[in-house]
């Protein structure tokens, strides 16, 4: 190697003096051109790039940014667009300026390149000089060792005297001249003799430790076997009694488990330096007292009366070696674990004497305190221990009585007495063993047949983890709040705790064997997205503050329960909130709670179903909120709180599959006692979608009832709760379209006299009225209220809309059961249902009264021509004379003016009447006839009688006037007839200054008078002559010779068959019976027309 270095140094030296082509420069040679020398320089391109690449990359980047801006700028606002362009210009300008500077610097790139090449050349030359120098130093060192051997004087004298060699060196003879090998028989005989000698020595002289009493002699050696420690073979140096023992081999019968590298690093048969050390040390201990004074003047000598015991010394040495070997294996395995992932939580320490191995596990890294920072304040929580536990494995000395059995002790004493007599042994047996100690407990042993530190550590950690889990379980189950004390909430296994957060949510808590930290994981088959960060954070908090275990798990349980409830509410489409902006004093009203979920009622936005998470279950409350007007950011005010008894709600469910209906004690789910309760009923965390839906439906029902009852309270109406559906079976179709609680929610019952006080036709209703909210269970339809009234008078519907069914629906809001005489009023607004009912009832009740009175008059007075033609609670149509009928409807019956009646008069075709002549002359008097009903707002029945009487009495008069009008039109003399009141008609002549008045009088009499004659007393106001004359010109004028006309008309009527009809001339007119009005009217009209025409001609 040194010669190669010298040769390499010389080559380098030649290269330095050469020109690179093998030639050497000599003085006087011409110099080579500079270009040639520059080509000899080594090129160096470290840290340099071509300017073209840099320029191309910058240009491409600018172009790409411009392209992107061209696509994105149109979609930006003007302000954002300007700001983006300005930022891009500034950034691009900086890049271009930098590129310009680089381009300026690139002018000197060639010079810089040449300098870098020269620098590299000089560096290479410097390296060559260093190599040559080192080669010269190595050569000098090697030459110093080159020395001639000493002169062979004996051989020189022989050659000088004898002229030739007389002998060979002894070393050559030994190395060249072979010795005669022993035969197999000689070898076997020698070994057999040696085995006999060994057996004799062992049986008669040598003190053998009891632990080495298991031995065998074979192949000229004795093999001692000590279980779990070693197996060693020895032999004697010769047959002499003083011949010593020498070491042959040793084997450690240790079974190494776990990592295979430990078996490779620590074989059972030591080799190399290890075996060399053991051999030297064993031979030294065996021959400790056998060294002669000449070889070792300082050799120890045996005292008088002491016998040498080399096997005891060997046993002590090999025992220590075996235990140390095992300890080193364990230390190696521990170090391997640290390297393979346990480094952050485990530390391995070995004592300086290599007799004690200390392993610290579950080590916690303490964060370093900042320099100069004050010490942290003392926390109320117990500080975390720096380590979880410690395993100490040490080679310890034990007492003889614990190391040996009584039999072994007796055998050792007998051997010593037999072989030594009164003398003493030079050495005593040392009693050693590997003792492993675990700090929290005792009794951990290291087994040489299963030497696996990882397995040992895992067993210790497993036991440690189990004890910790037991302590955690006890802490959770003995917590005074009782949140985790229910059976089934905590399930303990060997290495984990299963904590049931709610019905389908189970979290597993175990201890990491490496770090000793608590781990939480969700074992639910359906993993919920976003749950992992929560578990990570809770795990971090638990490991940081384990004293807060109950609080952290309680918070986790609460959040999981609220998540579950929120998720199931979302399945149903309900809007839910985890918190609402409520006043603190209002939150206190909900009582102590760990969490809450507010579910807003869709149909009633100011009401919320509140799920309160308590220690052992849910509590449910219904709250009514109110927002301060004019301030949308102010907190909500809680106006009312009602706690719900879920067990009673659940018990009140009723389905067709139920064998028996709920008991009457449980049917009344709506319990007024709930309003005054200050705490809900806990029902566990078994919250299903059906439960939420029923609670939601129940709250909607309660709000609907609250709104209805509020209206009753505002009006001062007393009400009671009844259950009309109890005991009545439910069909499967009905159960599918309504809530299972629908039949359990009661109805409201009010007195007709209270709710109909001041309402027209209140006498038509029975004493009790039932009010039932509906559709509060529906998600698609708004809540409704149906009010059921049973009529006193059963009047069957008639007409086209009556139909053949017992149930008719004359309008969207009214349903009539003709069989039971029950009218149901449907209100779409829960908040205004009472007012809407009163409005609808005023219409229906009047129609019922009118229909009843018409039917009564037909029967009681024997008026067969009065017939009820149509009746459907909205309209009453009846005939008051043959061919003449009227249809009555009403609306706005609650107004202070008495409402409005609408009368439609019709005429049907009769004998002698043309089909197209369907005009009913009463139609002209409709406004006045309507007032008869309107003025009878308080008592409608007498008004109906009055209306029918007036219609019948005025019919001849109205019919005759219509005939006069038609005949006059045909004759070309146009007159006008119109009604002045319900019983007052006027016949106005073309001059508009003369008229005949037809007035209905009592006892079916009719007065036909001159229109200019007033039946009322004249006014006391006196006018001057001129004013009186002007007014008289505007008023109707007396019919000329009207007195004569009346006399002639009466006479003509009497002659024409009017005798006995009480036709009387009263000078200003004629009074007659209604039946004779036709004769008198025609006669008077004809004569009046003649007089008016005569006056007009003159």
Automatic annotation (TrEMBL):
Record localization: Nucleus
Key words of the record: Activator, Nucleus, Transcription, Transcription regulation
Entry keyword RNA-binding: no
GO cellular component, one term: core mediator complex
Pfam families membership: Med14
GO BP, one annotated term: regulation of transcription by RNA polymerase II
Domain Mediator complex subunit MED14 N-terminal, first and last residues per copy: 48-237
One function term, GO molecular function aspect: transcription coregulator activity
PANTHER family reported for this sequence: MEDIATOR COMPLEX SUBUNIT, MEDIATOR OF RNA POLYMERASE II TRANSCRIPTION SUBUNIT 14
Quaternary structure annotation from Swiss-Prot or TrEMBL: Component of the Mediator complex.
Family: Belongs to the Mediator complex subunit 14 family.
Protein role: Component of the Mediator complex, a coactivator involved in the regulated transcription of nearly all RNA polymerase II-dependent genes. Mediator functions as a bridge to convey information from gene-specific regulatory proteins to the basal RNA polymerase II transcription machinery. Mediator is recruited to promoters by direct interactions with regulatory proteins and serves as a scaffold for the assembly of a functional preinitiation complex with RNA polymerase II and the general transcription factors.
Name assigned to this protein: Mediator of RNA polymerase II transcription subunit 14
Species of origin: Ephemerocybe angulata
């Amino acid at each position: 190697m040194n010669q190669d270095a010298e040769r390499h140094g010389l080559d380098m030296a030649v290269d330095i003096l050469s020109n690179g082509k093998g030639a050497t420069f000599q003085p006087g040679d011409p110099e080579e051109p500079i270009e040639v020398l520059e080509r000899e320089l080594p090129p160096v391109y470290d840290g340099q790039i071509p300017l073209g690449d840099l320029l191309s990359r910058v240009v491409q980047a600018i172009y790409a940014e411009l392209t992107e801006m061209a696509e994105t700028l149109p979609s930006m606002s003007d302000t954002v667009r300007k700001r983006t362009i300005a930022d891009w210009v500034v950034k691009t300008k900086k890049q271009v300026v930098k590129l310009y500077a680089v381009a300026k610097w690139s002018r000197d790139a060639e010079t810089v390149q040449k300098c870098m090449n020269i620098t590299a050349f000089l560096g290479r030359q410097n390296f060559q000089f260093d190599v040559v120098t080192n080669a010269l130093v190595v050569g000098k060192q090697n030459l110093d060792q080159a020395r001639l051997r000493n002169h062979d004087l004996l051989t020189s004298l022989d050659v000088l005297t004898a002229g030739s060699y007389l002998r060979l060196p002894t070393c050559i003879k030994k190395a060249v001249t072979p010795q005669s090998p022993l035969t197999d028989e000689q070898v076997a005989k020698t070994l057999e003799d040696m085995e006999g000698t060994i057996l004799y020595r062992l049986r008669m002289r040598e003190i053998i430790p009891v632990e080495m009493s298991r031995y065998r002699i074979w192949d000229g050696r004795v093999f001692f076997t000590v279980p779990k420690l070693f197996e060693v073979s020895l032999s004697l140096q010769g047959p002499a009694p003083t011949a010593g023992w020498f070491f042959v081999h040793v084997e450690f019968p240790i079974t190494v488990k776990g990592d295979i590298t430990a078996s490779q690093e620590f074989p059972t048969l030591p080799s190399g330096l290890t075996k060399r050390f053991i051999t030297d040390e064993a031979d030294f201990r065996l021959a400790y007292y056998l060294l002669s004074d000449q070889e070792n003047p300082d050799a120890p000598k045996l005292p008088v009366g002491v016998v040498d015991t080399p096997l005891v010394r060997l046993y002590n040495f090999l025992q220590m070696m075996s235990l140390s070997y095992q300890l080193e294996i364990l230390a190696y395995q521990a170090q391997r674990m640290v390297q393979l992932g346990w480094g952050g939580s485990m530390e391995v320490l070995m004592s300086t004497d290599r007799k004690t191995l200390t392993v610290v596990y579950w080590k916690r890294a303490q964060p370093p305190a900042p320099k100069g920072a004050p010490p942290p304040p003392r926390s109320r929580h117990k500080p975390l221990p720096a380590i979880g536990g410690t395993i100490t494995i040490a080679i310890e000395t034990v007492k003889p009585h614990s190391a040996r059995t009584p039999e072994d002790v007796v055998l050792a004493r007998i051997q010593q007495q037999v072989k030594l007599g009164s003398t003493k042994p030079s050495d005593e047996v040392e009693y050693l063993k590997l003792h492993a100690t675990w700090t929290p407990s005792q009794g951990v042993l290291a087994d040489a047949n299963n030497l696996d530190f990882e397995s040992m550590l895992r067993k210790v950690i497993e036991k440690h983890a189990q004890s910790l889990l037991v302590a955690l379980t006890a802490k959770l189950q003995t917590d005074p709040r009782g949140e985790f004390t229910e059976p089934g909430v905590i399930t303990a296994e060997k290495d984990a705790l299963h904590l049931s957060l709610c019905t389908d949510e189970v979290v597993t808590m175990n201890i990491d064997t490496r770090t000793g930290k608590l781990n939480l994981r969700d074992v639910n088959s359906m993993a919920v997205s976003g749950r992992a960060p929560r578990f990570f954070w809770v795990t971090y908090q638990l490991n940081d503050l384990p004293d807060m275990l109950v609080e952290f798990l309680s918070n986790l349980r609460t959040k999981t329960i609220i998540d579950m409830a929120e998720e199931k509410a979302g399945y149903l489409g309900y809007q839910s909130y985890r918190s609402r902006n409520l006043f603190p004093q209002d939150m206190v009203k909900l009582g102590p709670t760990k969490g809450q979920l507010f579910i807003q009622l869709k149909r009633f936005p100011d009401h919320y179903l509140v799920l309160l998470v308590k220690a052992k279950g849910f509590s449910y409350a219904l709250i009514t909120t109110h927002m301060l007007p004019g301030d949308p950011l102010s907190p909500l005010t809680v106006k009312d709180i009602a706690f719900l008894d879920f067990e009673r709600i659940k018990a009140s469910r009723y389905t067709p599959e139920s064998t028996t209906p709920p008991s009457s004690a449980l049917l009344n789910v709506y319990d007024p006692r709930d309003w005054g309760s200050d705490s809900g009923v806990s029902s566990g965390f078994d919250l299903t979608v059906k439960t939420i839906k029923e609670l939601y439906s129940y709250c909607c029902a309660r709000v609907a009832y609250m709104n209805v009852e509020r209206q009753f309270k505002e009006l001062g109406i007393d009400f009671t709760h009844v259950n009309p559906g109890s005991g009545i079976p439910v069909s499967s179709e009905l159960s599918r379209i309504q809530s299972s609680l629908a039949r359990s929610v009661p109805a409201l019952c009010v007195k007709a006299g209270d709710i109909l006080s001041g309402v027209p036709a209140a006498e038509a209703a029975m004493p009790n009225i039932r009010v039932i909210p509906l559709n509060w269970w529906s998600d698609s339809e708004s809540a409704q209220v149906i009010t059921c009234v049973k009529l006193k008078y059963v009047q069957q519907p008639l007409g086209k809309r009556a139909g053949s069914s017992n149930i008719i629906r004359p309008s969207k809001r009214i349903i009539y059961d003709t069989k039971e005489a029950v009218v149901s009023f449907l209100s779409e607004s829960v908040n205004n249902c009472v007012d809407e009912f009163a409005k609808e009832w005023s219409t229906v009740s009047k129609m019922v009264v009118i229909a009843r009175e018409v039917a009564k008059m037909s029967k009681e007075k024997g008026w067969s021509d009065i017939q009820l033609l149509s009746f459907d609670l909205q309209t009453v149509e009846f005939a008051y004379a043959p061919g003449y009928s009227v249809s009555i409807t009403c609306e706005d019956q609650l107004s202070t003016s008495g409402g409005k009646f609408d009368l439609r008069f019709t005429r049907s075709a009769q004998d002698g009447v043309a089909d197209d002549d369907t005009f009913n002359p009463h139609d002209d008097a409709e406004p006045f006839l309507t007032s008869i009903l309107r003025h009878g707002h308080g008592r409608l029945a007498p008004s109906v009688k009055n209306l029918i009487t007036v219609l019948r009495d005025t019919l001849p008069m109205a019919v005759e006037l219509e005939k006069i009008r038609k005949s006059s039109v045909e004759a070309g003399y146009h007159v006008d007839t119109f009604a002045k009141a319900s019983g007052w008609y006027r016949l106005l002549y073309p001059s508009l200054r003369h008229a005949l008045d037809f007035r209905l009088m009592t006892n079916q009499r009719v007065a036909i008078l001159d229109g200019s004659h007033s039946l009322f007393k004249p006014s006391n106001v006196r006018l001057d002559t001129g004013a009186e004359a002007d007014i008289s010109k505007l008023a109707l004028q007396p019919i000329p010779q009207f007195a004569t006309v009346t006399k002639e008309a009466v006479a003509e009527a009497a002659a024409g068959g009017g005798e006995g009809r009480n036709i009387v001339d009263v000078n200003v007119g004629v009074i007659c019976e209604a039946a004779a009005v036709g004769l008198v009217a025609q006669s008077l009209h004809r004569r009046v027309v003649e007089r008016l025409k005569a006056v007009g001609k003159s």
